[in-house]
């Protein structure tokens, strides 16, 4: 169990450092219009690549969840035991916070670095209303996070099903997360992962922390919904329950 939790810690650390790091350090490098900045597409790819590489590195150890919503969804889908939920979530959140801290130390090495806690997407944080990159309402943000997390779980469970082509699951999952970011960065700056949201919110300021509730509630609800949907679609009654989907 300790090794599994270590894998979840490191995998979530990698996801937040790579995904949020690309948003903080590289998305707008050099200012608007600078061809060296990677923009929304680059950030979306960075998140997808962290999950893809992390799943190949750690998936055979822990199942490669790196996300409390995924753990809840796999439990709802019959792929993950209830007794392991809390330890997995704790490991994921701690890995995300460490990544946020390291990212803050790196970003602070630039002269003049400052975080504006009132700015949308400050320090790669998630938000709605005034903290949404596109000014989207709380209802729109909630719906977006629920639906996209549910579909993420459907892809995860389908790609890791015993009848799916072996060895390709991380590619499908990474591309799914990339697509999710391409859709929802303007809406919420894309969470679908409570640990990812928590890992940077405490460095972004009190307003980001005050909105964290949505980025726990909506992704977990979406994860549960997606797990139940795929359990029905994929006939999970014939699949052995395991912590390594």
TrEMBL record:
UniProt xrefs under InterPro entries: Aquaporin-like (IPR023271), Aquaporin_transptr (IPR034294), Aquaporin_Z (IPR023743), MIP (IPR000425), MIP_CS (IPR022357)
CDD domains registered for this protein in UniProt: MIP (cd00333)
Catalytic activity: H2O(in) = H2O(out)
Short motif (NPA 2): ranges: 193-195
Site (Selectivity filter): 47, 181, 190, 196
GO CC annotation, single: plasma membrane
Coiled coil: none
PROSITE patterns in the cross-refs: MIP, PROKAR_LIPOPROTEIN
Domain of life: Bacteria
UniProt keyword annotations, A-Z: Cell inner membrane, Cell membrane, Membrane, Repeat, Transmembrane, Transmembrane helix, Transport
Protein's name in the database: Aquaporin Z
Protein species of origin: Luteimonas cucumeris
């Amino acid at each position: 169990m300790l090794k599994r939790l270590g894998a979840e810690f490191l995998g979530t650390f990698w996801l937040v450092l790579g995904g949020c790091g690309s948003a903080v350090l590289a998305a707008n490098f050099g200012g608007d219009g600078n061809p060296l900045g990677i923009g929304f597409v680059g950030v979306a790819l960075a998140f997808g690549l962290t999950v893809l590489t992390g799943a190949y590195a750690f998936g055979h150890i822990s199942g490669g969840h790196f996300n409390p919503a995924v753990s809840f969804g796999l439990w709802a889908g019959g792929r993950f035991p209830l007794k392991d939920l809390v330890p997995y979530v704790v490991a994921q959140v701690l890995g995300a916070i460490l990544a946020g801290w390291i990212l803050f130390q790196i970003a602070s090495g630039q002269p003049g670095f400052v975080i504006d806690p009132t700015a949308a997407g400050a320090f790669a944080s998630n938000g709605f209303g005034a903290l949404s990159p596109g000014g989207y309402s709380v209802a729109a943000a909630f719906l977006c996070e629920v639906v996209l997390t549910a579909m993420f779980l459907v892809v995860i469970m389908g790609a890791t099903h015993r009848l799916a082509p072996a060895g390709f699951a991380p590619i499908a999952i990474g591309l799914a997360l990339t697509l999710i970011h391409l859709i929802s960065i303007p809406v919420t700056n894309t969470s679908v992962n409570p640990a990812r949201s928590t890992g940077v919110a405490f460095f972004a300021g009190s307003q980001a922390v005050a909105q964290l509730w949505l980025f726990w509630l909506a992704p977990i609800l979406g994860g549960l919904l997606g797990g139940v949907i795929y359990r029905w679609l994929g006939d999970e009654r014939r699949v052995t329950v395991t912590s390594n989907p």
